[in-house]
Write a structure and sequence with these properties.
The chain is an alpha/beta fold. It has helices spanning 18-28, 45-51, 64-78, 98-106, 129-146, 162-170, 178-187, 211-230, and strands at 5-11, 33-38, 55-58, 83-86, 112-116, 158-160, 192-196. The chain has 8 helices and 7 strands; from the N terminus they run E-H-E-H-E-H-E-H-E-H-E-H-H-E-H.
């Protein structure tokens, strides 16, 4: 039986990129459901997404990236989808790489697949020095706390099995979520895989992370990881495996 695939695309004021993002996903798989979660945008993001054929979930007020992503995963759970992918609405993630991202899920060997920029040491992504240090610190900390090597904890380009959908529909951090979500997944028993991907620069709009916010981000995430490492999570077997 063919697995039902849904693409979850969180978006906030991405009118300059969202149409192209939807079109690229559709070019990869014409049968996939594309769900754009509009996080109370003040521009034409929602209307353009609908015009390009996406299902749009309009949030009545801005909840942030974590809340928007979890809204998409709850939709995927409630509508019975077997597999989900998450791509950002700014065009950074290339839908042409979805085949690589989805392969371990379709093979039945992984529940969470992270599109990583650092699996291959020869990868082309070269972040600024400060960001590179932050990425390495988070990756090392998650690897130690989760007991499994993780190379890219800040990637929002992921694929999930049904078990992963069910977990993240219930357990998903709301504030700068990717790093903590990876730890939650590992400690909950999800089978993790990482595949090398290239990412583009943001295609339109502006990032919500400023210098001051980046400092807050580092401190907040490190504290959140330590707290998450002390929590007990429902194991994957209890989610239906």
């Amino acid at each position: 039986m063919t697995s039902r695939l849904v693409a979850v695309v969180p978006a906030w004021n991405e009118e300059g990129a969202i149409g192209r993002v939807v079109d690229e996903i559709r070019a990869f798989d014409r049968t996939a459901t594309i769900v754009v979660v509009d996080d109370a945008s003040s521009d034409e993001t929602a209307g353009l997404a609908e015009a390009h054929g996406a299902t749009v979930l309009r949030l009545p007020f801005n909840v942030g990236i974590g809340g928007a992503v979890q809204t998409g995963f709850r939709y995927a759970r409630d509508e019975g989808y077997d597999v989900a992918v998450r791509l950002d609405g700014d065009g950074q993630h290339d839908a042409a790489e979805l085949g690589t991202l989805l392969a371990p899920v379709y093979a039945g060997s992984a529940d969470l697949v992270i599109g990583s920029r650092f699996v291959d040491p020869g990868g082309t992504y070269r972040p600024p020095f400060a960001r590179r240090i932050g990425i390495r610190v988070f990756a090392r900390l998650v690897s130690v706390l989760g007991g499994q090597r993780v190379t890219d904890t800040t990637s929002g380009f992921v694929a999930l099995s049904r078990a992963g959908i069910e977990l993240f529909a219930v357990e998903y951090p709301h504030d700068y979520p990717e790093v903590e979500a990876t730890l939650v997944a590992v400690r909950s028993g999800l089978r993790l895989a990482q595949v090398q991907v290239d990412m583009r620069e943001r295609q339109a709009g502006t990032s919500s992370i400023t210098f001051v916010r980046s400092l807050y981000y580092i401190v907040k995430v490190m504290l959140a990881l330590l707290i998450a490492s002390l929590r007990r999570y429902r194991r994957l077997e209890a989610a239906g495996r």
